[in-house]
Structure formats: structure tokens, C-alpha cells
Amino acid sequence: MVNLIGTYECKVDAKGRLMVPAPMKKQLVPIMQEGFVLKRSVFNPCLELYPLEQWNKEMEKIGELNQYVKENVDFIRMFTAGVKLVDVDTNGRLLIPKDLVRVAKINKEVVLNSSIGKVEIWDKELYEKSIDTPAEEFAALAERVMGNKNRNGNELP
């Protein structure tokens, strides 16, 4: 799995192309030839950019679902709706298809946020709203999510 690092601001042009910032492009170079998958996020008004290898791992997990259960089939359809294969061109630009630009409400300014195995692509204003959480609320969230695990990540009694 590729562990990307960083949060970067950049701009999208009228054609939906964004110039991948140099520090992120440097991290992507080893996997750029494989290509990427771009999709809408399940939980947030943003897009997710998966290196193809990581996407294939996600699809393996989803492929384990019983496709004779309607709820599973509905989930698969919604999860993969609007999925696109994309590339970063030789100039370091990524073309975001117009339908995905609309879904994520992307305007001119965007934020690329590294996440586990993927990059989130946000409209800058929406991103800033999503992280605008008081420190006490973030601390409480961190405790709920991570506070019941030991150093090895195992659940505590």
C-alpha cells in the first residue's frame, strides 16, 4: 500500500485539470504508470483518487460480497457509480471528469488531502468546513476511535 503524506492546495482550470503539486507528484512517480481510479467518496462531498493497485485491493474485498443479496448488489452499484480510470499526464496534470467535478462541487480552488491508500480531492471551502472542529471535539473523537486500543492496536478489555 502507498502511504502518501501531506495536504496541498492547488487550482482546477476551466477544463477540470489540476496540476498535481510537486511534493505529491514526487510521491506518486513510482505508481504513475499504473494509473489511478477516481470516484466519489462514500461519506464526504469529495472525490477519492486510488492508485490502481490499491483500488484492486478494494475491489477484492467488495468481490467477496454475496451478489445474490440485494443489499450487497445495491451497495456495489452505488460504490462504483461514476468510477473513472484516470492518469496524471506528462505535465503532472490530472483531468477530473465534469460529472465528478459536479458531484464534489469543485470550484477553482481544491485541496488534495492524503489519506490511507488514497488521496481525497476536495473543494477548498468544503474541506475547510470539514476540518473546522473545536479541539475538544477532535480530542473526544480521537478518544472514542483510538482510546480503547493498546500500542499494538488490539482492543483493551
Find the count of extended strands (DSSP E, 2+ residues).
8
The run of helices and strands is EEHEEHHEEHEEHH
Cα distance, first to last residue? 30 Å
Uncertain runs are none
Using the CA coordinates, give the radius of gyration. Answer: 17 Å
Helix content: 25-40%
Mean pLDDT: 91
Determine the number of helices (DSSP H or I, runs of at least 4 residues): 6
Shape: globular
Beta-sheet strand percentage? 15-25%
Q: Looking across the biggest beta sheet, what order are the strands in? A: 1-7-8-4-3-5
Report on the biggest sheet: 6 strands, antiparallel
Topology (SSEs and partners):
Elements: E1 7-11, E2 17-19, H1 22-28, E3 36-40, E4 47-51, H2 52-63, H3 70-80, E5 84-86, E6 93-95, H4 98-103, E7 109-115, E8 118-123, H5 124-131, H6 135-146
Walkthrough of the structure:
The chain is of the alpha+beta class and 157 residues long. Helix content is 36%, strand content 24%. A hairpin with a 6-residue loop joins strand 3 and strand 4. 18% of the residues are buried.
In short:
This protein has six helices and eight strands; from the N terminus they run ββαββααββαββαα. By secondary structure, it is α+β, with helices and mostly antiparallel strands. The two termini are 30 Å apart.
